[in-house]
């Protein structure tokens, strides 16, 4: 084999280490990309500690009717929650709530225990335990509600609610039949309490 004068011979170089280095670099890049993908997922999982707040109106039925004298009453009702804001689940913007409870109370006092189910606009549901306390706030009769989400979306989160029964006591509270039902504004908050 003839060699050109002044030109050094071409020496074959093994490509093994270079290919191995490229392969290792590619694996490192893949691992880094996968790890970066996990960070938002973990952040999303922590979003459950945020809050979901809703406002709406609630219609309640009392059986037997509420009077000025405490007695055992079964309560049931529905509440369209047309204005919801959630930092826990941005797909939520409204819901429908139904509930039932039993306790001893009157038009102005008492405590009852029950459960509430919320159907969210995204198709998910939440089942909530609740304890409600009826009390006077100035001239207004309000129900303060608290409990825990026992199943479904936001399971394990605490929740509170406020239902304004009426501003002035209805005359039906003075009758033996009592107040059969009432409607009023409801606010509800889940999480970070």
Would you write up a description of this structure?
The chain is an alpha+beta fold and 193 residues long. The protein folds into two domains: 16-49; 50-190, AOC barrel-like (Beta Barrel), CATH 2.40.350. It has one helix and nine strands, in the order αβββββββββ. The longest helix has 31 residues, at 16-46.
State the separation between the terminal residues, measured CA to CA: 87 Å
Count of DSSP E strands? 9
In the CATH scheme, the class of the largest domain would be Mainly Beta
What characterizes the major β-sheet? 8 strands, antiparallel, barrel
Radius of gyration: 32 Å
Q: Indicate the overall shape.
A: elongated
- The helix content, as a percent range, equals 10-25%
Per the CATH scheme, the topology name of the largest domain is AOC barrel-like
Number of domains: 2
Strand content: over 45%
Strand order within the widest sheet?
A: 1-2-4-5-6-7-8-9
Question: Quick recap of the structure?
Answer:
This protein is of the alpha+beta class and 193 residues long.
Which key features would you list for this structure?
AOC barrel-like; 8-stranded antiparallel barrel; 16% helix; 9 strands; 193 residues; 2 domains
What's the SSE blueprint?
Layout: H1 16-46, E1 52-66, E2 71-81, E3 83-86, E4 95-105, E5 110-120, E6 125-137, E7 140-152, E8 158-166, E9 179-190
Antiparallel strand pairs: 1-2, 1-3, 1-9, 2-4, 4-5, 5-6, 6-7, 7-8, 8-9
């Amino acid at each position: 084999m003839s060699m050109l004068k002044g030109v050094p011979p071409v020496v074959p170089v093994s490509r093994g280490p270079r290919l191995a280095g490229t392969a290792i670099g590619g694996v490192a890049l893949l691992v880094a990309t996968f790890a970066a993908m996990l960070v938002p997922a973990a952040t999303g999982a922590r979003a459950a500690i945020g809050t979901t707040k809703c406002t709406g109106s609630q219609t309640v039925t009392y059986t037997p009717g509420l009077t000025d004298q405490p007695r055992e009453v079964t309560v049931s009702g529905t509440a369209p929650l047309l204005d919801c804001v959630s930092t826990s689940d941005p797909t939520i913007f409204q819901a429908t709530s139904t509930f039932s409870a039993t306790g001893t109370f009157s038009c102005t006092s008492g405590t009852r225990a029950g459960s509430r189910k919320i159907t969210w606009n995204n198709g998910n549901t939440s089942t909530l335990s609740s304890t409600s306390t009826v009390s006077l706030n100035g001239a207004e009769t309000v129900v303060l509600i608290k409990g825990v989400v026992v199943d479904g979306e936001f399971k394990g989160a605490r929740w509170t609610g406020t239902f304004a029964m009426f501003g002035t006591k209805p005359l039906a509270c003075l009758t033996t039949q009592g107040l059969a039902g009432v409607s009023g504004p409801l606010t509800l908050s889940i999480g970070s309490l």
